[in-house]
């Protein structure tokens, strides 16, 4: 307790002493369970319309955490919060035994109690439970923030997230909405005929994405291993093995920076479907998102921060080359002469890209000047092969892949493509990535001969998807930071 101030330590000791007071007052204090209580939400829904001053004669058992208390002469009032809502306890000193009254006189803000009493409404119109008896369930030794919205400092909120959930209802509601969204994703995928699978989180090679991994050591095997940056390569092994529709929803890890839309540990849904291409994948992800909007009764025209976007389908599908050409008023195609394009960019706009191929040039211009300004949901297609090591090349556009990324409000929500099934081409692309890694590119993909061997047995035409759950939750709950939609985001140590 060395981190307590003097007043906090005194409060802690005073509250601690009350544990023995409660045990002396009642033999069943601190029971191991408390069953049969009614949800506060149900009480409000059924009885909120009764008249001021009305006593229903209906008695209920409820439980929850004491948020605050008030004393008015012979009456005590306590706000009680459970998982479903908040109500008021009314304690009439003249109608309770000395023992029961002593319990309430010793309850503190933060205590978890059970209470039995009659549903009524005060003359001022406040729905209440007029208490006949109560039980202490758990003693809070530290004080909650004083006011209902008293916990506002972000650092404190994220570090003591449990307090944030207690005193900020919107924060708790966000995590509840997140849970519903995850369940709806699963429901949608199962109805579509996909089976949910689990693939290794610890992997001998960090594959399936271009990212820097976390490394650890497997003592039993005496082997360095990596937290997965994606489940992709294992899911596609399942497709090789004869599964035709698979998905996985879980954590992935990338040892990279933290900002408003990035966390090193985040949640992703990946799916793979045999015998379809990128167009079917785009249809599926759009239908899935609109299904979630409908199930949550969210309007398609939504506001995120200070910007509005309409999510009603169909969503626009536009080539990256078209977006870049329109932005810079210079026609750039997959087979354009890079020297001429660079010269035009320098002459007209004084822009000097560093890219050494037309594909890398278009990708650089898109990432630096366009993607942040995409507001309405848009499938950006025609990604260059240089940045798409697992995507199938477009037969009519050399150097361009059948790949998309879904953007909305300037953020990438999904990534998908027609999967590369040619084992020799895949091996060559991974060798190119390995060369980049040898030259110091920590995010370049590793060479994975085991995956190439799996492809040699035959991967059918396949459409794949990676969907960012956290960012989608951010949009649907209007939260500006990915940390807000994560129950326990990582933080630097306080000291």
Tags for this model:
eight-stranded mixed beta sheet; alpha+beta; 495 residues
Describe the overall structure.
This protein is an alpha+beta fold and 495 residues long. It is built from 14 helices and 18 strands. The strands form four sheets. Strands 6-10-11-18-17-16-15-14 form an eight-stranded mixed β-sheet, with helices on both faces. A five-stranded mixed beta barrel has the order 1-2-3-5-4. Helix 5 packs across helix 6, helix 6 packs across helix 14 and helix 9 crosses helix 11.
SSE arrangement:
Blueprint: H1 6-25, H2 40-47, E1 55-72, E2 75-81, E3 86-92, H3 98-106, E4 112-121, E5 127-138, H4 154-159, H5 161-167, H6 169-191, E6 195-196, E7 202-203, E8 215-218, E9 223-227, H7 232-240, E10 245-253, E11 265-274, H8 278-295, E12 301-304, E13 307-310, E14 316-319, H9 320-328, H10 338-349, H11 358-369, E15 378-381, E16 403-408, E17 411-418, H12 423-438, H13 449-456, E18 462-468, H14 469-477
Parallel strand pairs: 3-5, 6-10, 14-15
Antiparallel strand pairs: 1-2, 1-4, 2-3, 4-5, 7-9, 8-9, 10-11, 11-18, 12-13, 15-16, 16-17, 17-18
Helix pairs in contact: 1-3, 5-6, 6-8, 6-14, 9-11, 12-13
